[in-house]
């Protein structure tokens, strides 16, 4: 065995040295045996020494139990969980992504999110001795972790059993263990946490519920917007209920505690808020309570319910409801089907509100925050709502049913980057919206204020009515070639927004990336009859870079003006010809836009389709039938703009440079039918992971490819205003 006849302290030192040498294993956290943390030296290089302040904590990656013998992994992890729960270590330190255990022959990991519910059970006795295996509590936890199904999302790990615990043998699984640590530890963006830890503002981050700490900059700005809409004295004139309060930070800055109620799903969060009240938070304890907003009934305490009697009186009174503000940052988590379980959470949306409103909400019911809005709208009519959420409810196609139902008047809105919120990494907008449910009105468009990550205002943005919209994929459906006998490639058409643009690619249909099990026109066949329309679609989706602000913007069904703009169509064709992923090893390359003489090729091309399409002349070869029955309609000479011609010139030089390389024959790597992708691969090569390198060692090639990219950028700038003119975007 790898570590035999050594004491526990020596075992911890060797495991640290052999597997976690990149990290800091010196931290002592509560009564936990072994802790792995992000190193602080690299994180604070060139910065102020934040860690000199005791209120700033380094993110833990692993808390583990160490045993010197051959231990039962479930017993070891059960003991660790009891140790953590007894000391409430998670209240004093940010929990790690993994718990674990190890002995002289093996190591095991357990995702913290899989067992965190245990720590919030109200009827659990945490006073038992963790090492006593005979207690009821020990057996409950042991059974829970030994019988659960394995997580499907761990990178670098293939489960050998149906166990939830991920186990490695040091000798047999050394490579897999190191790969697992690299994929799940090294690539994480942890380091110094954004949260300063003290009893007044400690936030436990629980990804299971999708709850995110609201940065103070947006708390303050949201309250300013509420004052703008409701009046300067709104806090004295209105009641406030945060029904997704977490630990209550959204309520910081509110002054009239007589009018404030805060409820949250977890009793533990209630305890934290009460502790904050003891230390000066401006709330009344009797107005802070545990309440599951998506499942519990609206019943007052006096009738056996959970709502404070005064709050129940407010929501039951028609006039008082008009003076109630539901002020929330609800969870953004979306439930997905099992196939997409890596992206979302399965079945977290199965609440009472979901069951009662599924028919009217449609796919929007997957979103937890939509369920919050639905209950507020249906069961607390005439109130005001101030809520943080994504912009999906306003513009996303899947939310059309929700928009038909939710007819509250949008009074005011501002948006900010999502990644300014703790625990949110995506580049998309989050909006703070103020709704008046008393006045039912569907908007035609919405003008919102825009703030950057530092809270600096830099303009407005208009969101179009998402209810009446038809989308770009609806437009492309008009050009489906049902024969498909003359296919020259295919395009992936997932989604209608910038968020999905990375999936839009052109390749042979068997090699198309991102399609998965998507239906509709996700895999759209490209033929001679729809090549121009496909090129317009591709260029429209690709020429404008995606940003956090346009991430949810929808590409729309255009007006008809594009049909008469032949130059625009040809510009889009030129852009598409030099941005596809076609490779001849997967099928015939019909996309070469040059003749053999233009690029000095050593042999004849297998297909002359594209040069024939561009020149308006059918070049007879084995693929002339691609123009079958379409000769009169499609064989016209394409005239290109000066910007497009520059792209062709730059591309021609690149192709020529490739074909002029010193190839003896095809066995030396020469491919007469090489595509742009093949040329890039030839010169740039791939790294040890198989990923194409960013640059080549051939400086002449680097110069040529950069020139091509530059001309494509100029062409993209020319195409961009036409996208708005023809209303692909508004």
Summary keywords:
alpha/beta, Rossmann fold, nine-stranded mixed sheet, flat
What can you see in these coordinates?
The protein has 730 residues and is α/β, with parallel strands linked by helices. It has three domains: 8-196, no CATH class; 207-464, Rossmann fold (3-Layer(aba) Sandwich); 473-725, no CATH class. It contains 24 helices and 19 strands. Strands 10-9-8-11-12-14-13-15-16 form a nine-stranded mixed beta sheet, sandwiched between helices. A five-stranded mixed beta sheet has the order 1-3-4-5-6. The protein has a three-stranded antiparallel beta sheet with strand order 18-17-19, covered by helices on one side. Strand 4 (98-102) and strand 5 form a beta hairpin. Helix 3 packs across helix 5 and helix 17 (531-542) packs across helix 18 (566-577). The longest helix has 27 residues, at 699-725. Residues 41-56, 149-162, 187-211 and 335-346 have low confidence and may be disordered.
List the helices and strands and how they pair.
Elements: H1 8-19, E1 34-37, H2 40-43, E2 56-58, E3 60-66, H3 73-87, H4 89-92, E4 98-102, E5 106-111, H5 136-147, E6 166-169, H6 174-186, E7 192-196, H7 216-230, H8 234-237, E8 239-242, E9 260-264, H9 267-278, E10 288-290, H10 309-316, H11 318-321, E11 324-328, H12 352-361, H13 368-379, E12 384-390, H14 392-395, H15 400-405, E13 408-417, E14 429-440, E15 445-451, E16 457-464, H16 472-476, E17 489-492, E18 506-507, E19 523-526, H17 531-542, H18 566-577, H19 596-599, H20 609-615, H21 631-634, H22 642-659, H23 676-684, H24 699-725
Parallel strand pairs: 3-4, 8-9, 8-11, 9-10, 11-12, 13-15
Antiparallel strand pairs: 1-3, 2-7, 4-5, 5-6, 12-14, 13-14, 15-16, 17-18, 17-19
Helix pairs in contact: 3-5, 17-18, 18-22, 18-24, 22-24
């Amino acid at each position: 065995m790898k570590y035999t006849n050594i004491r526990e302290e020596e075992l911890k030192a060797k495991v640290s040295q052999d597997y976690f040498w990149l990290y800091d294993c010196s931290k002592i956290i509560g009564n936990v045996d072994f802790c792995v943390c992000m190193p602080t030296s690299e994180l604070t290089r060139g910065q102020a020494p934040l860690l000199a302040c005791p209120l700033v904590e380094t993110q833990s990656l692993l808390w583990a139990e160490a045993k010197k013998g051959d231990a039962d992994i479930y017993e070891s992890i059960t003991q660790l969980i009891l140790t953590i729960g007894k000391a409430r270590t998670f209240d004093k330190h940010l929990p790690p992504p993994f718990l674990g255990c190890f002995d002289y022959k093996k190591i095991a990991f357990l995702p913290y999110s899989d067992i965190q519910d245990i720590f919030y059970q109200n009827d659990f006795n945490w006073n038992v001795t963790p090492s006593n295996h005979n207690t009821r509590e020990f057996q409950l936890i042991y059974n829970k972790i030994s019988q659960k199904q394995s997580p499907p999302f761990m990178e670098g790990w293939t489960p050998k059993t149906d166990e939830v615990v991920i186990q490695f043998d040091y000798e047999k699984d050394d490579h897999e263990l190191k790969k697992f640590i690299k994929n799940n530890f090294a690539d994480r963006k942890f380091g110094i946490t954004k949260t300063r830890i003290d009893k007044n503002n400690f936030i436990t981050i629980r990804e299971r519920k999708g709850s995110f700490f609201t940065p103070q900059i947006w708390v303050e700005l949201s309250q300013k917007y509420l004052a703008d809409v409701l009046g300067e004295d709104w806090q004295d004139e209105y009641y406030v209920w945060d029904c997704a309060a977490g630990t209550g930070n959204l309520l910081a800055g509110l002054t009239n505690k007589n009018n404030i109620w805060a409820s949250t799903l977890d009793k533990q969060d209630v305890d934290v808020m009460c502790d904050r009240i003891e230390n000066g938070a401006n709330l009344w304890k009797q107005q802070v309570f545990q309440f599951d907003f998506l499942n519990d009934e609206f019943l007052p305490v006096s009738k056996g319910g959970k709502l404070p009697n005064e709050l129940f009186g407010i929501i039951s009174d028609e006039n008082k409801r008009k003076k109630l503000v539901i002020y929330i940052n609800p969870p953004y988590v979306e439930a997905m089907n099992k196939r997409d379980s890596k992206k979302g959470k399965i079945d977290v949306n199965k609440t009472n509100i979901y069951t009662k409103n599924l028919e009217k909400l449609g796919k929007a019911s997957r979103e937890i925050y939509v369920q919050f809005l639905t209950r507020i709208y249906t069961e607390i009519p005439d109130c005001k709502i101030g809520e943080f959420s994504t912009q999906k409810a306003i513009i996303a196609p899947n939310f059309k049913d929700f928009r038909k139902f939710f007819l509250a008047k949008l009074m005011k809105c501002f948006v900010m980057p999502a990644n300014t919120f703790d625990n949110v990494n995506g580049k998309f907008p989050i909006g703070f919206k103020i709704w008046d449910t008393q006045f039912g009105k569907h908007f035609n468009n919405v003008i919102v204020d825009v703030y950057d990550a530092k809270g600096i205002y830099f303009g407005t943005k208009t969101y179009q009515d998402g209810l009446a919209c038809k989308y770009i994929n609806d437009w492309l459906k008009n050009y489906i070639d049902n024969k498909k006998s003359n296919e020259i490639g295919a395009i992936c058409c997932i989604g209608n927004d910038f968020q999905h643009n990375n999936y839009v690619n052109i390749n042979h249909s068997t090699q198309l990336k991102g399609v998965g099990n998507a239906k509709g026109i996700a895999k759209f066949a490209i033929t001679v009859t729809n090549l121009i329309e496909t090129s317009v679609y591709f260029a429209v989706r690709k020429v404008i870079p995606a940003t956090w602000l346009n991430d949810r913007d929808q590409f729309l069904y255009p007006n008809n003006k594009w049909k008469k703009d032949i130059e625009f169509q040809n510009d889009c064709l030129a852009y598409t010809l030099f941005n596809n992923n076609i490779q001849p090893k997967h099928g015939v390359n019909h996309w070469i836009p040059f003749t053999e003489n233009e690029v000095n090729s050593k042999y004849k091309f297998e297909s002359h389709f594209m040069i024939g399409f561009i020149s308006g002349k059918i070049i007879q070869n084995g693929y002339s039938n691609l123009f079958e029955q379409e000769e009169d309609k499609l064989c016209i000479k394409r005239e290109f703009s000066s910007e497009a011609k520059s792209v062709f010139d730059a591309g021609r030089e690149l192709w020529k440079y490739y074909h002029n390389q010193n190839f003896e024959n095809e066995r030396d790597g020469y491919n007469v039918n090489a595509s742009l992708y093949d040329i890039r691969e030839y010169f740039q090569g791939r790294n040890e992971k198989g990923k194409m390198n960013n640059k080549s060692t051939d400086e002449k090639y680097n110069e040529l490819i950069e020139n091509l990219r530059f001309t494509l950028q100029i062409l993209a700038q020319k195409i961009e205003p036409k996208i708005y003119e023809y209303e692909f975007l508004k």
